[in-house]
Structures are given as structure tokens and as C-alpha cells.
Amino acid sequence: MSGKDIALVLEERKVQGKAVKQLRRDGMVPAVIHDHGKPSIVVMAPYLELYKVYKQAGKHHPLNLNLSGQNYMALIKDVHFNPRKNRLDHVVFNAIKQDEKVETEVPIHIEGEIPAERIGLIVVRPLDVVEVEALPKDLVDEIKIDGSGLAEIGDKITVEDLTVPEGITILTEAEHTIAVVEEPRAHVEEVAEEEEGEGEEGEEGEVAEGEEGEGGEEKVVETKEVSSDKNTE
After folding, report:
1. How many structural domains compose the chain?
2. Entry pTM
């Protein structure tokens, strides 16, 4: 775990349900603490302070919560953002113990220069966190991996390629892709359109050749004569 000590002072919350809308208008964020099967504790905190803590800790860094003199070690388990305002709306904390392993998610950081990006290729990153299990003291703020192997189309990094410190177990399945090199979408679409156009031209060409092979010029002459007779009628 990073040596950074992150603390947050919480306040008791006496309102629930629809009444929390007014709390948000007043600059407070409703939250709850789940504590090892005990009744949940409903709390709140000033928006700016709680948002700052969330940005620092994410879901992987233990927090020191203080509620009316009572201290809790906890992880942020879940957060909810207002989709229209993109504002932090609600937070769920899970109380943890120093001597008990916890399951949480840790961000993946691809470090160094990525050769594929330098030559205009696209690096798609379908996975930016992994689920891990560890004691609170062993948790890390991120898992780093070198990006220099991402050089050509098809090159990829999977969970299996990650190396973690002793004491951490990765729970995410090993075959999951973290990053993969692909062609720029615009180029792929352009090539597909070109291939489709060539296919249509080829089909038209094959029909013309087939007609000539079966009788060619005579067939064309007969068609014209019939057409001419009809016009005359």
C-alpha cells in the first residue's frame, strides 16, 4: 500500500429517501458504511472533500474514516454519479480489518512509449482495472506494465502478462485482454469499401464474359432485332 494516509471526516445523516435531494443541493453527498454484517451506518460528507478523496483513493486505497470520534478503516466499494450532471451522488464504504484480506479493483498503468501509437496505429484498451485480493497493507495504487511490446497490429497485453508484488492475488481471468494494437478505424472502413467495390466490379465483368462465351455477338444482334420489331409495332 502507498504510504499516503487518506482521511475523511463524516457526519451522521438523519434523512433518507427523497429527502436526500435537499442534502445534495446543500453541497453534501449521502453515503453509507457497511461494517461486517452489522447494521449499515448512514452518513454524509461535503461534496468537494469526498470527491477529492475518491479521486485520490479510488476503490483500492484504504481510508481512515472518522465519524463522531469513531474510526473506521474502509475502502470505497461503490460510487454513483448523476448521469446528467456528472456529479458524485452517493458513495458506499466497506469497513475492513488490517488482518483480513479484501477483494477490490486496482488500476492498470501502461508505462513508457508505445511504438504502435508513434506510427499511427490505435491501441484499444478494453480493461483498465483488475480485481485483486490482498491484505490492506499489501494493496497498491496501480499495477504497472511496460508498453514497448505494443508495436504491430495484433500485439496485445493480457492479464497473464501482469506482475504483482508478493501478497497480491489477481482474481481477473488471465486471458482477458488489457490492450491490443489495431488499425485506425477510418483506414479499416476505407479498405472494406474498396474491397466491396472491387467485388461488385468483378461480378459485372463475369456476367459479360459469360454472355459472350455462349454466343456473344449473335445474341446481342438478336436482342436488338427483337427490340426493334417491338418498337415498330
Report:
1. 2
2. 0.72
